Amino acid sequence: MSDKITISTFQLFEMFPDEETARKYLEARLWPQGVHCPECGGFDRITKRKGGYYRCNQCKLDFTVRTGTIFGRSHIPLHKWIYAMYLLMTARKGISSLQLSKEIGIRQASAWFMLQRLREACGNDFSVLSGIVEVDEMYVGGREANKHVTKKRNAGRGAVGKTPVLAMRQRGGRTAAMPIKNADMTTIQRKIHKHVAAGSTLNTDESGVYHGLHGLIFRHDTINHSQGKYARGEVTTNGVESVFAVMRRGLTGVYHHASVKHLHRYVDEFTFRLNDGNVKRHTMNRLGSFVDATVGRRITYKELVA
Q1: pTM for this predicted structure
Q2: pLDDT tens figures, 199-225
Q3: Would you identify the CATH topology of the domain 132-274?
């Protein structure tokens, strides 16, 4: 592996020029102990066939490295999948389906489906945060004033008609983010208890939804933004707000719109880039983490458009 932590697009093409090189890489990554059946998990009674196919003589399953992953039943060559993962991982604010279709030479509709599958893999993180954890929420959606008269809710200003997104960022560590139905105290505090370890210190603003968190489980420090204060010693939410800054730029500038139905996948994508796709890691390590996350996360087109 190169001493540099990044590899260029040209280098990636040299590493994976065709389907065969991509298949061998995926097999080595997903089957480090050797070929095994994705159905029964058997190693011993596997017969190799042509074109990357294998036969499990125990459960009679014919399979490839695609089976049981987001690549399953896709006609797009594997080296194009790897290039799509590389682009999604290295583009700080994401890549649109139109741009991806031009980059790898497929239809825009196929690129959209491909990206949604990749985002589905990004949601495979169950980490628990600890230490100092910054917590904040933002709202995603169009402004009421800009909506067509038939779509206006006429229920007030601010967060009306928008979807709340809650984010928690461990100081110097990982990030957890997810859309929530309601930005009320019960919902937000339930998510905090689920994703933050006991004994951690929470940094939030002075919103009432965080009241009552200080006690036996957490230490809770607040910063008063309404008074123009954004840091008090180590107490700040600037880290988690930087997560929202990138997310807003991506949703607005690259994707333009994310429906409520698919918003959680877009949020997972941005979160993955901050965690396993962190630029401080070597590109191949980041790509490897992405490949690992593809197992067991397949979603069909019918499920996406239902």
Answers
A1: 0.92
A2: 999 999 999 999 999 988 999 999 998
A3: Nucleotidyltransferase; domain 5 (3.30.420)
